Amino acid sequence: MSTLITGGGSQTGIALAKLLQGSGHPVLFASRSGRVPDGFESVKLDWSDPSTYEEAFKAPGHEIQYVFLQFAGVYDPLPAAKALIELAVKRGVKRFVLLSASGEGTEKGPNSFSTGAVHTYLDAQGLDYVVLRPTWFIGTRFLSDAANCHELICYNPENFLRLYGKGIKEHNVIQTTIPTGRIPFVGVDDIAQVAFDAIVNVEKLPNREPIIVGADLLSHPEVAEALTKSLGRTITHVTITKDELTKRYLGFGLPESYAEHLAIVCEKAEKGAEEKHLDDPRTITGKVGTREWIEKHKEAFAAL
């Protein structure tokens, strides 16, 4: 019984695939580019081309029972998600695991959007599902490694290194609109572990829509202090305006509506939107803390 991992060689997808493979569970990647790690099979799946959806269910030697859904760079994933989910149900898929986000807009319900709308659809159809809702995540790839700039914000949470790495390396600064709001940045491995449990041992999870947070709760100035300690040079947090942040996202090539949405996400984080997840009974706390992660990956922040 294989797991289909959509979204190609994403950080979370690769980490999940390694956990599954290490436990003897077959994995099949599906991606537009075919970019997957060595040792795994893949098929073509382009969210913008429904004619490719069937290929995943024709792969020799794979009976797809689980589907891990992620929508990198897809701002309105519901139409594509509905088409694939309907096909998957017809092909006998047992459970769907959706990578969503912790923001208000991704809560299940009539006002949801983006992956929240997919969550709402899965629930309305009465399907067996788990929706992962990580807060902002830390990862190990830089912006220059992304397939395109849209990959920078492929999920609502931000990838810390990909977004801030350039400023830290070149100018020793972190620029945000969040000077006091604290965030429980979560590691990719912790997200992948919850995804693994959702597929292999779902009874282990406290609920079917877990919010996933990291072991540390830090403000961006506190992150700058942690970087300063690990790197041996002074890293400073600089507060910028909401307009400046929106312009930066527009510079990445994002649609204006989405750039504005991301700026609002940051505005809410400054007001405590991410910190409040610690009091939510649905929350799972990971093992990786931001300080620990920085120390482990400090070479990635070497000054240019």
From TrEMBL:
Domain named NAD(P)-binding: residues: 7-137
InterPro entries: Ergot_Alk_Oxidoreductase, NAD(P)-bd_dom, NAD(P)-bd_dom_sf
Top-level taxon of the source organism: Eukaryota
SUPFAM superfamilies: NAD(P)-binding Rossmann-fold domains (SSF51735)
Signal peptide coordinates: none
One Pfam family here: NAD_binding_10
Name of this chain's protein: NAD(P)-binding domain-containing protein
Organism field: Ephemerocybe angulata
